[in-house]
Amino acid sequence: MPYEWDTPITRAPAPDAPGHDAGGAPIAVLHLWPYRSLPKRGFAFAIGFAYLMLMIPVAGFVGTAAMWWLFFPGLIAIVGLWWFLGKSYRDGEILEELTIWPDHVRLTRTGPKRSHAEWEANPHWVTVQRHPTGGPVKDYITLKGGAREVEIGAFLHEDERPALFDELTRAFTLAKSRRMP
């Protein structure tokens, strides 16, 4: 799954747990990122394979002027493949981080081209909402707190978003409750 709880919340925080303002550690940390169907190793393999496939027809024309008519357009195609795959990787450099304290929640989104967005709220006023239809994607998940509503995990696969919704609902339910000593 392209999301992971670094610090999963398994039970309600203690009543005396220090909050965000007191410098306390978060009670839950969630990282989300887009799925990569082609890992870096596969990227290198694809470029190498394209180069080898280019060399097959070129090898038959070594020593002739026709070799250059085959070699340069093929080389341009390989450079184009490299550039477009690299652009796809750069555009998919999204990381969302949800950090929950007993008295504070922060969602940060770092995107391509160093774009950065942040949202903060009190977890007691945050509601997790799932929009089965009507959103930009199926099972669109939003967090609403204060005057803003923000999306989370819109880049996840449609099968992963309901599970994320359940986990977020459970995490905020536990964060809102206080454990008795």
TrEMBL record:
Keywords: Membrane, Transmembrane, Transmembrane helix. This is DUF2244 domain-containing protein. It holds the Pfam family DUF2244. InterPro entries: DUF2244_TM. It comes from the Bacteria. The chain crosses the membrane at residues 42-60, 66-85. It comes from Maritimibacter harenae.
